[in-house]
Amino acid sequence: MGNCLTRKDQSLPIDTTFKLPAPTPVWPPGDGFASGIVNLGELQVAQVSTFNKVWTSYEGGLSNLGATIFEPTGLPERFCMLGCYSQPNNKPFSGWVLLAKDNSSTSSPALKEPLDYSLIWNTKSLKVNQNGSAYFWQPSPPNGYIAAGHVVTTTPDKPSLDKVRCVRSDLTDEIETYGWIWGPGKSNDSNGFNLYETRPRNRGTQAPGLLVGTFLAQNGGITGALAMSSLKNTNVNFTSMPNLKQIQAIVQVYSPIMYLHPKEQYLPSSVNWFFTNGGLLYKRGEESQPTPIQPNGTNLPQDHNNDGSYWLDLPADKANKERVKRGDLQSSKAYLHIKPMFGGTFTDIACWVYYPFNGPARAKVEFITISLGKIGQHVGDWEHVTLRVSNFDGELRKLYFSQHSGGTWVDSFNLEFKNGNKPVVYSSLYGHAFYPRAGLNPQGTNSVGLRNDTAESDLVVDMGVGYEVVSTESLRSEIVELPWLNYFREWGPKISYDIAEELKKMEKWLPRKLKKLLEKLVRSLPNELLGEEGPTGPKVKNNWNGDEVVH
């Protein structure tokens, strides 16, 4: 009994509502950005963060701290609830869901009440600390309609039919689960009852599916996935996207502060600095006659092929090569790609940074740090972070950190901020992968892994200073893409070396077991990190038109 009281009385992270360090500004005027409502065509949607608490479990789920179910309150006139919201108790409250309003002029309404509800599961007999009992209901939609969320009650009585609305099927998009919210156990047991976050299965700059903010309840492997959907934006103009003045304002408020490691030798530079300081274009078969690259890359191949016929390299003479390798922090700038995401309800601002050279990788083997020599070194290195901003209110929701061939999304409440709402980004020593915290940031097993050392230093870049918007999907007529952006070939030469020979140099003093682990680590590295192929530019990456790649 004492434990139960202690758990219920203790302060949980969810009891604190996350707020950005500084108030968001009044954004410059425009069409639909930060207006609170997005027009999807036959539907209008509003994003709300005002809720009534329905039920809390104090056990199970992430960190064994339980989860809480919320129901939106204070609905604007004619806007309807689509489902409840839930989040784990082990993080600050930062929730929102979409409400929908019928905007159709056809004989088939965009929204309809469910015909009935079916009970998915209840917690009455569940032996966990909980605030009463919870009953999870699946709306039964009329023919041609589909539910976009669940209703949760604290009694076995079915919810009223006017509690939620179902959405006409042609205005919906297929979903998938991606984040575990809660289950009675301490880990995700797919055979039990679980709550999951959902997102559209198809994601990208042209994908119309929205994040609704509701959850999916799954009981014993029997899922409601096919009976639930997200909404879809049929208004192809994406009028909720920010205009250029609004983009400039967003960047000034949220531009990341990038810290390079104090021992970093290979600094970023602008692309033009690399070109005008001796960057060379090579053509296969004519290697003895490389071509100096013109400013902005006007003489780079502009076809969208990458057959290995062309590549870029450092200056040929040794002294200049070493100088250019080390970059030029003063000329460095962020190159911004503005992307509509989730049907134009979010703006992704990918901030790309260019480095003329990527230094050697370093491995942690037990308590020893080993330089991997040639492994990890390559000419030309593109890294990026991506701001994810809500088009409903202009708030920064997440930041993506690119890390070698993938990366990770970090919620705003887990970011470090400076100078108001500017998130802090740490670039790892030599490898330039981005991380949200200073420290080792190991990648691999406890015994053997890559070191990704990050630290605060005087080598710092505010990505909002001197930045350049190089591409924006929603303002194509206002942005002229630079020639180097449409260079689809390698930004560095292919490097051939004997991995076994490199490993021999490193393994001299390692016991056999650790040698095997190191070999396994090295051979698992992506080709780009191994230096076996030259890296490609931003527009060739999958995330240019799609969502970010997560490890």
Quick structural gist:
The chain is mostly beta strands and 551 residues long.
Provide an overview of this structure.
There is one protein chain. By secondary structure, the chain is mainly β. The chain has 2 domains: 225 residues, no CATH class; 301 residues, no CATH class. It contains 7 helices and 37 strands. The strands form 10 sheets. It has a 6-stranded mixed beta sheet. Strands 20, 31, 32, 33 and 36 form a 5-stranded mixed beta sheet that branches. A 4-stranded antiparallel beta sheet has the order 1-2-7-5, with no helix packed on it. β26 and β27 form a beta hairpin.
Total individual domains? 2
Strand order in space, largest sheet: 30-29-28-25-24-37
> How large a portion of the residues is in β-strands, by DSSP E?
25-35%
| Helical fraction | 10-25%
Unreliable residue stretches: 1-6
What is the CA-CA span between the terminal residues? 42 Å
Mean pLDDT: 91
Counting H and I runs of at least 4 residues, what is the number of helices?
A: 7
- Characterize the biggest β-sheet: 6 strands, mixed
The value of Rg in angstroms is 26 Å
Beta-strand segment tally? 37
Helix-strand category: mainly beta
Shape label: globular
